[in-house]
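Researcher: We plan to redesign the surface later, but first we want a full-length starting point. Tokens attached.
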């Protein structure tokens, strides 16, 4: 038996199948015993089959799928042709693999989809962490998203690099926060920068609007921004800077 025929049988007959006890299967086994290249191919194919089997064992089977697959694999007219049966088996395996891949891709898309939080949740986290009333103080922002401010006036009041933290428990910070100091308003505090795709109730306003006594929020094209005053009310900031949102 040549390598091409042996590899075709390896690819179409599952390991442990009774077909390996046929004359054709035993000839393939004898070829494998003396051909290191085909042994390597067989190992890779059977390892892939094992991984697919483990994957499919964890996937719920849709109602009616086994019956539909059996209808495909066993036509009403029947077939005694082994080659035809293998081709049918390949089509069935392809359908099952495609189903498994769709489920896997769906799970992956769900897992990597950004987790969203409300404006209030981000503001509460700011009150807890930035003022260190609870939890550990935030560390340096890890650069997991572009937190650059376009408005030069806001750039001018930021002091030092951003700090950051995550809310969803996944790798990468969800928030970048800049320490700010606005001398003409005698105000110090923080400016939170959050990607818009991580906010479930993104505000419509592009100018600061009060959301709490010491907090104002607004949006830009790419970010939700929340200004948190250390002590003073936020009204003076809104009145003075309402035309220059970042």
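Model: Full-length starting sequence:
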């Amino acid at each position: 038996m040549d390598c091409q025929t042996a590899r075709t049988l390896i690819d179409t007959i599952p390991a442990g199948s009774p077909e390996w006890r046929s004359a054709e299967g035993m000839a393939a086994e004898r070829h494998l015993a003396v051909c290191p290249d085909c042994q390597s191919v067989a190992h890779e194919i059977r390892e892939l089959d094992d991984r697919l089997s483990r994957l499919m064992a964890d996937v719920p089977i849709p109602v009616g799928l086994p019956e539909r697959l059996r209808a495909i694999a066993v036509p009403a007219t029947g077939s005694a042709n082994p080659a035809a049966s293998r081709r049918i088996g390949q089509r069935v395996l392809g359908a099952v693999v495609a189903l498994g891949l769709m489920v896997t891709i769906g799970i992956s898309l769900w897992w990597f989809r950004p987790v969203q939080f409300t404006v209030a949740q981000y503001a509460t986290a700011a009150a807890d962490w930035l003022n260190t009333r609870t939890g550990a103080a935030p560390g340096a922002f890890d650069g997991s998203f572009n937190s650059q401010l376009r408005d030069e006036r806001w750039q001018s009041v930021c002091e030092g690099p951003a700090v950051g933290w995550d809310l969803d428990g996944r790798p990468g910070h969800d928030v970048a926060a800049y320490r700010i100091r606005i001398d003409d308003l005698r105000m110090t505090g923080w400016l939170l920068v959050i990607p818009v795709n991580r906010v479930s109730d993104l505000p419509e306003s592009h100018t600061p609007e009060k959301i709490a006594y010491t907090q104002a929020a607004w949006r830009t094209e790419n970010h939700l921004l929340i200004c948190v005053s250390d002590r003073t009310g936020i009204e003076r900031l809104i009145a003075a800077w309402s035309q220059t949102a970042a």
